[in-house]
Amino acid sequence: MTSSASPIKLIVGLGNPGAEYAATRHNAGFWWVDQLARDGGATLRHENKFHGQVGRARLSGHEVWLLQPMTFMNRSGLSVVSLAQFYRVLPHEILVVHDELDIPPGQIKLKQGGGNGGHNGLKDIQAHLSTPNFWRLRVGIGHPGDRAQVAAYVLKPPRMEEQTLIDETLDRAHQIVPQLLSGDLGGAMQKLHTDEARRRPHKAAPAP
């Protein structure tokens, strides 16, 4: 893992602007940034030069920029790179929070770099930053099973039981904020994934 000693200076929540999208699966990143803003006493305000809602929060004794791009998902990179360049935030100091089809509701994972998995927000951020070397907090939303249904699936609200599970994962992610902002990214990853592993049902041992 690279750059694990660098604290996160910018947390980006991905989603689409507008009331019609607010409760949809694709806006899971917005949900967590909204929670962080409340916890950190920050007010997210629209900043034209950053093409998004921006706030400065104080969490666990550290200050961090919060950003919700208002460009729609497939142009998220414009907003991210605008703020990052202005405040001289490096890619490995950025955490992008996004919905993840390949993880079921109730699970959440942290990683640095990697592919975009077809996620248009990640794809555009990677293109604008010219590197995949930013951090990702992957919020499980599950997969509809048919690739042809993905676009409709992410733009619909989760079922009630799914929403409960997603909300619980976002609450658990708050426990690693102190490590994210102090630069202990390895510790944050270990804590989150250890806690997640404990919550997954264990397969029964085969009968002798």
TrEMBL record:
PROSITE patterns in the cross-refs: PEPT_TRNA_HYDROL_2
Where in the sequence is the active site? 26 (proton acceptor)
Record keywords, A-Z: Cytoplasm, Hydrolase, RNA-binding, tRNA-binding
Q: Name one GO cellular component term.
A: cytoplasm
Q: Please give the catalytic activity noted in the UniProt record.
A: an N-acyl-L-alpha-aminoacyl-tRNA + H2O = an N-acyl-L-amino acid + a tRNA + H(+)
Enzyme Commission numbers on file: 3.1.1.29
Key word DNA-binding present? no
Positions annotated to bind tRNA: 21, 72, 74, 120
Site annotation (Discriminates between blocked and unblocked aminoacyl-tRNA) points to 16
Single GO term (MF): tRNA binding
Q: What residues does the record give for site: Stabilizes the basic form of H active site to accept a proton?
A: 99
Q: One Pfam family for this entry, by name?
A: Pept_tRNA_hydro
Its main subcellular localisation, reduced to a broad class, is cytoplasm
Q: State the InterPro entries in the record.
A: Pept_tRNA_hydro, Pept_tRNA_hydro_CS, Pept_tRNA_hydro_sf
**Which enzyme type, at the first EC level?**
hydrolase
Protein location: Cytoplasm
A single GO BP: rescue of stalled ribosome
Known role: Hydrolyzes ribosome-free peptidyl-tRNAs (with 1 or more amino acids incorporated), which drop off the ribosome during protein synthesis, or as a result of ribosome stalling.
Name the family the entry cites.
Belongs to the PTH family.
Q: Which HAMAP family match?
A: Pept_tRNA_hydro_bact (MF_00083)
Q: How does it assemble?
A: Monomer.
Put simply, this protein is called Peptidyl-tRNA hydrolase
| Gene name per UniProt | pth
